[in-house]
Design the sequence.
């Protein structure tokens, strides 16, 4: 099955799931991140522990009954523990969470994300967005964070208007200096490819292109210069088994369409 | 920016010492409970997004036309929109506000915040939880490793400190002592000893943090039930100031194990806003808040079949 035979959300869910290893823990939000985690759990990581910010550990999501929020019964289905929300995040602060998945309305070259406000000043913005929720905590406290996002020029901006969730801040050791000792944004998985950050500058750096995607298309859809070393790999397209499993989890295409 | 009164642990302590902490009768009418809220209060609501929202109390507070309130809630949903359009909320303190993923960014929130009418003070989800936890502990702040380096630090005026033991920078998350807590629980005895099923959210911390605690409960159970399972009590009676029996007290939001959120109702509400903007919420307030004089009358607008269906969905998910 080739990449153009699945939806952008399916592509992101499959590529996201491949970032997860067995015997680890993942902090997942609802929508594509949750689908990626459920797919990984069913396919190659049966001993993955899912943690959801509404205060849910170890749920087994019922196919076709996907939650739309991180604190509802669909998200808590067959969970192993329901701690309070503050305590759930404190598991991450203590170091129990290996991977976190987040997204954002804007992302910049250092992986900083904005889900708060665009334009104007903070107290009277041009566009007010819903806010951090747990995104800031996830990127500050998980061992590793994978950003999952549609790749569009209006999202990939030179500098985010507001740093809701700190990636590598200004690059170099600025994240460490701010007191963020433990976490790191390791990957940005988009609808065009998989990206990392260069070791010193912490600038967005292409690692692999999805099948059929060119470097020019990445450059066109990014509002700043992306590092593109030669050669780069091509990702394995979503397999029939991966797509079939995903569609079994979300049979009505609620999040995958 | 967090106001100095919000983290004044000395004043908060004196206030608590001065108030009665009775193990006696707490049951009152919804009108009497909501009347404990004063104009200008900082009101913290329990639950999270559309889960266990104290909607019966919010509704009665709006019916009593409270003004200039600061609404604090970790994730805010339709209750925040209703309070904005009713003119009750002068300021909101939250980590996230909208109805839910399928309905996009809240148009009501955008209109009120972008016009500068209602400032939205944003904290990370954990930071807001720690503000309640610090207050519940009676201290002015808690150190944390979150929010550092982000622009959220300046929004709330969060300070940092070099750790006196390790030398590393720490975020000092200021306490938030609300004037009033509004909570909805599964069951309580008439003395206010409360049990919650499922995810506990931040309710127990909020109850300890606030000066006045108002609770609605799905069910009133005998004192003997509480005494048989004291390990199930998450809010003790002497913390509670007023208790109201309000079945389906969070509807159309959910209550774990008892009823699922009414997503069809959210869809109709959101579609009306898409079509008519703020006017749709004003009409909603007339129909659901100012119209029916009682909570029973409010529930009758949904009908018993609808409530029974949502109860069945909840049993399927948690049974």
Sequence:
């Amino acid at each position: 099955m080739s990449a153009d035979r699945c939806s952008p959300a399916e592509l992101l869910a499959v590529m996201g799931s491949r970032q997860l290893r067995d015997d680890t823990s993942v902090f997942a939000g609802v929508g594509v991140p949750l689908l990626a985690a459920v797919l990984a759990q069913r396919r190659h990581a049966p001993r993955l522990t899912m943690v959801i910010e509404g205060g849910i550990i170890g749920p087994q999501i019922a196919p076709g009954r996907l939650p739309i929020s991180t604190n509802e019964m669909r998200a808590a289905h067959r969970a192993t523990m329901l701690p309070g929300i503050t305590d759930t995040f404190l598991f991450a602060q203590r170091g129990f969470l290996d991977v976190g998945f987040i997204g954002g309305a804007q992302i910049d070259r250092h992986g900083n994300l904005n889900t708060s406000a665009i334009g104007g000043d903070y107290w009277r913005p041009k566009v007010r967005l819903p806010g951090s929720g747990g995104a800031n905590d996830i990127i500050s406290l998980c061992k590793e964070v994978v950003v999952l996002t549609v790749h569009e020029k209006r999202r990939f901006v030179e500098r985010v208007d507001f740093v809701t969730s700190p990636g590598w801040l200004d690059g170099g050791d600025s994240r460490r200096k701010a007191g963020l000792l433990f976490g790191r944004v390791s990957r940005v998985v988009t609808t065009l490819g998989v990206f990392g950050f260069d070791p010193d500058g912490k600038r967005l750096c292409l690692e692999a292109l999805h099948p059929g995607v060119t470097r020019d298309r990445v450059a066109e859809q990014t509002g700043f210069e992306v590092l593109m070393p030669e050669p780069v790999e091509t990702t394995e397209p979503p397999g029939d088994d991966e797509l079939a499993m995903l569609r079994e989890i979300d049979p009505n295409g609620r999040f995958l369409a | 920016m967090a106001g100095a009164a919000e983290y004044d642990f000395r004043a908060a302590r004196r206030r608590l010492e001065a108030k009665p902490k009775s193990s006696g009768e707490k049951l009152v009418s919804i009108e009497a409970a909501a009347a404990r809220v004063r104009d200008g209060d900082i009101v913290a609501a329990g639950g999270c997004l559309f889960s266990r929202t104290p909607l019966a109390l919010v509704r009665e507070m709006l019916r009593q036309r409270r003004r200039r309130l600061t609404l604090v809630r970790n994730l805010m949903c339709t209750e925040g929109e209703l309070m904005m359009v009713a003119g009750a909320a002068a300021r909101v303190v939250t980590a996230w506000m909208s109805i839910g993923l399928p309905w996009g960014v809240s148009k009501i929130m955008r209109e009120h915040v972008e016009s500068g009418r209602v400032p939205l003070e944003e904290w990370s989800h954990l930071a807001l939880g720690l503000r309640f936890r610090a207050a519940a502990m009676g201290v002015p702040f808690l150190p944390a490793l979150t929010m550092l380096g982000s622009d959220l630090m300046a929004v709330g005026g969060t300070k940092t400190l070099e750790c006196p033991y390790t030398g590393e920078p720490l975020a000092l998350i200021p306490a938030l002592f609300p004037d009033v807590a509004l909570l909805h629980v599964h069951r309580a005895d008439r003395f206010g000893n409360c049990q919650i099923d499922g995810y506990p959210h931040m309710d127990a911390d909020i109850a300890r943090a606030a000066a006045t605690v108002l609770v609605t409960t799905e069910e009133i159970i005998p004192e003997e039930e509480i005494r048989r399972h004291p390990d199930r009590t998450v809010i003790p009676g002497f913390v509670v100031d007023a208790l109201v029996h309000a079945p389906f007290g969070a509807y159309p939001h959910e209550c774990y194990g008892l009823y699922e959120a009414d997503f069809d109702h959210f869809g109709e509400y959101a579609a009306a806003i898409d079509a008519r903007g703020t006017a749709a919420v004003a009409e909603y307030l007339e129909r659901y808040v100012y119209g029916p004089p009682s909570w029973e009358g409010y529930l009758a607008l949904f009908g018993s079949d609808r409530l029974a269906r949502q109860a069945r969905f909840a049993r399927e998910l948690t049974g």
About this structure: Chain B touches chain A through 65 residues (CB under 8 Å). Chain B has one domain: 4-318. The mean pLDDT of chain B is 97. The longest strand of chain B covers residues 180-188.
